[in-house]
Amino acid sequence: MNFLRLFRKELRGSSAVAWPLVAGIVLLDALLRSRMGIWREGLPAAVSAAASLVVAAWPIGALLYSMQAEWATNSVQLLLSLPVRGATVCAAKLASVVAWSYVLANARGLSFWLFFGRPDPRLSARVPISVAVNAGLQIAAVWTAFMVTVLVLAQCSFVVGRTVPRWWGLTAAAAFIVQGWLLVRLVPVMSRLFQWLPDLRVGTWSSSADVVILDTLTLDSGFLAALAVMLGGFLVLGGLLLEGEMEV
Predict the structure, then answer these.
(1) Domain limits at 140?
(2) Is the CB of residue 14 less than 8 Å from the CB of residue 97?
(3) How many domains does the chain have?
(4) Are 76 and 246 in contact, with CB atoms under 8 Å apart?
(5) pTM of whole model > 0.85?
């Protein structure tokens, strides 16, 4: 229940920036669409695609800004004076950023599709709906895994950096690198503990010379489980350090 209340609070706090950003994405695409035929061919679509970098960078910026704002106003200390664990605070912030990132990513994709291009109907007719849905879910899953990994490492690194009185930025950067190194070294080893989990199989497709090729992609469930355990550990570590720092 505490998590849900904090989650809703974080969602409301981010809405003041997220909704204007969504509107900005649509307005930018509308403006660039009106430049087609005036600017060099392909340039409006290229500028619109480059704007996707803002959407990709927003989650980490929003999370770190939220952590910094809470720290500067001591509102984290007020939260932790209530029956709320540090890991719950970190998880609520993380979940709200992930939720808003989905809103932004969907707005980005729909706006680009609306103004600059739609799939070839001949290709769409040859790709089963179930395969297309699986491919979309596959992209969403890969994006989510990558985004959550970066956000968890960034959040934990921020808290680690704040445990030192000086050079906290360098300390946070060093913590991020160390966590990344631990993931690379330990996740493959830990994945052996989860080899009993069945692999995930999702349908996918590709096209070449108007020929649609259906295929099946196999994902290692052991690797994903080990990654989840490691990220959960970093999340809990960040929460414990947050509690310890606020008690000082």
Answers:
(1) 125-248
(2) yes
(3) 2
(4) yes
(5) no
